[in-house]
Every structure is written in C-alpha cells, then in structure tokens.
Amino acid sequence: MPQGSRTPVKIFMFGGSTMWGEGARDAFTIPSIIAKELRQKGIAAEVTNFGETGYVSTQEVITFLLQLQKGKLPDLVIFYDGVNDMFSAYQQHVAGLPQNEHHREEEFDLSQPGMFTRREKMDLQAIAKKLSTVRFAKTLLERLGFRYPKAVTAESLSFDIPTPENEALVQDLLAIYRSNIDIVNALSERYHFKCLFYWQPTIFQKTQLTAAYELGKRAEMQAIGQFVGQTYEAVHRSELAEKYKGSFHDLSLVFADVRQPMYIDWCHPGESGNEIIAKIMASDILGLSVANKE
Questions:
Q1: How far, in Å, CA of 73 to CA of 215, rounded?
Q2: Please, are residues 85 and 99 in contact by the beta-carbon 8 Å criterion?
C-alpha cells in the first residue's frame, strides 16, 4: 500500500460489541487504533465503526447490504466475528439466529388480541426500571395492583442453558459463517472493494491466565467453554484459512501465551488487547492495494 495517498481510504468495520468498543475509551477501540496506525504510516483513512452489541455475522452482512443499497461504497470492509455466532448457537440450539430470538417471539405474542393487559404490565415495568425514581415507581405500580418485583417473563421458548456436545451444531455455525464470507466476496467483485475477515479470540484460548480476575471471568462462563472449544477446534481443522487465503485470519490464539491481563470478561479484550488486534489488522491493510488512489 503506497504512502501519502491523497484520497482517504474508506474502511467499513463490522462486528459485535468487541468491535464497537465495549470497555474501551473512544480512542482505544479497534477502528480508532487502526485509523491512528494508518495515519502514522502516511495513509489517510476514513474508518467507520459499524459494530453493534450482540450482532451475529448475518446481521452484519445485512447492515453492510443496506449501506451498499444507499450507495455508500467502501474501499475495504472488515468483519470481526466468532463470539456472538457461537453464543447465539449455544443459547438457542440453532445456528445463524440473532441472539435472544425468544424475546422477539415474546414480543410478537404480545401483539396478539387478548394480550393487552399483559403487554401493559410489561411496558410499565420497563419504564419503571429506567426511572431514576425507581422506589416511587415501584410503589405506584403496587398501588395499581402490579407486583413490580415479579417480572413478567416469556413463557414460550423457554430453555435451560445446555452444555452442547453437538458437532452438527458447530458445523451448521461454520457453514453459515462461510456463506456470509461468500456473499461478501461476491459483493466485492460487483462493487470493487477489498475484504478481510477475522475470527475472534476468547479467554478460553488464553493459557496464561493472570491473577484471580481472569480466572474468575473464565469460571463465570465455564458452561459455554466446552462449546467454544469445540467450535475453535473446528475452525482450526476447517478449510477457512486455505479457501479464503489472504482474507481470512484466525486470531483465536493471539493472546494464548500473553502473561499480562488481556480480558475484561470472557470475550472482550481491554484496551491493550484492542491495540494488539488493531495493529495486526493495520498490518494486513497495509499489504493491500486499497490506498492506490490519486
């Protein structure tokens, strides 16, 4: 990638809360650090952070399609995925759905005739939870006959958190992920942009857990650990790196041997972790020709 490009390189970045910047200041999100790294190399870049909390890869592709539909074309698009796709599949026993799909089913049920009273109670409870005067709202609800502490919950599609040992679910997850990569690659040929895909690390791949904090965060999510391990093994065994050589990068082991604390929970790196990941991405970007513009 040549230096001193006059026209800013347009980079769209998609992902979940790790891309959005959970636990990081604005200047220390992955997109912000990438913009800084490129600027230091003499590359002017217009980096847009499309990260959304909880988004799975399919939602990101749809968001990207909507941008293309509006005529907003990037020079490069980056997808940073893995955690939300795994959590959603684990949570719902089905790959490819948005997280907490049972909430949508509950909301749909509440739109049906005969559900007004139940919906009214839930609306009042939702409002009460957001008020600064929670105590007053609680008293008011109780006077109206609503028992505030007993929240109305979904009765349909209830489930227990499992410990999946289902290789078929893992393979379904990866099949959907591959399809999303194929869709973006097809769009890149039509709209002439470059694309990069990254598979995220989690605390379960970190062998050097530091102090009680990281150990505690890993223990909190141990139930999903087995499924995460199965999925990462499948990624390592898959043809992803070979099939999408140069565009797909598995970052799952990037913190494996790092002795310093990297995570604020089981899947969100802190600012120092974001810097490591962003510098890897920036290096890959510099190897592309997207800045070859006058």
A1: 43
A2: no
CA 46 to chain centre: 21
Would you list the DSSP string of 53-118?
A: TT--HHHHHHHHHHHHHTT---SEEEEEESHHHHHHHHHHSSTTPPTTHHHHHHHHHHTSTT-HHH
Tell me the two tokens of residue 39.
């600027």
Distance CA 289, CA 75 (A): 10
Give per-residue pLDDT as tens, 48-72. 999 999 999 999 999 999 999 999 9
Cα distances (angstroms) measured from residue 53 to each of 60, 75, 211, 253, 290 = 11, 24, 28, 23, 28
Quick check: 154 pLDDT over 50? Answer: no
Q: Which fold has domain 9-93+167-286?
A: Rossmann fold (3.40.50)
Residue 127 has a pLDDT of 53
Crossing angle between the packed helical segments 101-110 and 83-92, to the nearest 10 degrees: 60
CA Rg, the chain, in Å?
Answer: 22
What does the DSSP assignment read for 112-145?
Answer: STT-HHHHHHHHHHHHHHH-S-HHHHHHHHHHTT
176-180: Cβ within 8 A, 24+ apart = 176/57, 176/58, 176/85, 176/95, 176/96, 177/57, 177/81, 177/85, 178/240, 178/243, 180/57, 180/58, 180/60, 180/61, 180/79
Query: pLDDT digits over 165-190, tens only?
Result: 578 999 999 999 999 999 999 999 99
Of the pLDDT bands very low, low, confident and very high (cuts 50, 70, 90), residue 289 is: confident
Q: Where are the domains of the chain?
A: 9-93+167-286, 98-158
pTM (predicted TM-score): 0.78
